[in-house]
Amino acid sequence: xxxxxxxxxxxxxxxxxxxxxxxxxxxxxxxxxxxxxxxxxxxxxxxxxxxxxxxxxxxxxxxxxxxxxxxxxxxxxxxxxxxxxxxxxxxxxxxxxxxxxxxxxxxxxxxxxxxxxxxxxxxxxxxxxxxxxxxxxxxxxxxxxxxxxxxxxxxxxxxxxxxxxxxxxxxxxxxxxxxxxxxxxxxxxxxxxxxxxxxxxxxxxxxxxxxxxxxxxx
Length: 218
Fold this sequence. Notes:
CATH class of the largest domain: Mainly Beta
Largest sheet: 6 strands, antiparallel, barrel
Number of strands: 12
Number of domains: 3
Helix content: 10-25%
Distance between the termini: 28 Å
Strand content: 35-45%
CATH architecture of the largest domain: Beta Barrel
Oligomer: single chain
């Protein structure tokens, strides 16, 4: 589990094919002294497992499913990526709950300066935007961000200078592909609501549209 608060950059030092998957060698720009083999590290928002550690350099295996679902197909040696180590229970939850399971990709449509902020518009598929709301949270390349505006096919974000300086959103341009993870709470609620009611005589959940409306959620 992660928070979407990026700890630093990593640089892709090597990419080796492993069947239909890949192994990435990544060099972090911060110490990995508390990381051990088997630990999870979010790389551009995708939860990957460290299988080799050597100082600030680590290696991860990237499965074919991960490559299909993410922007890793566009990555190359020298690419800079966002890194976040897994959340500890004693840490503050400064961003939002991020699982590291990327739902799909988006494409940066535009970046415009507005006072001290950069307004970024990203094109997304409808199957992603359905789980987003205005002023809700979204993880873009693993960065916890707030949605300013949303349509069926785009989201608009306001990036402050600090975020632009320490994450990849600052140097990515229009046309860049980014990883998207939507807020997982909405997906679970949809699953509960869409699950068929149990057969007669089987105890059912009291969570339904009427219950949510009664409690003020709709």
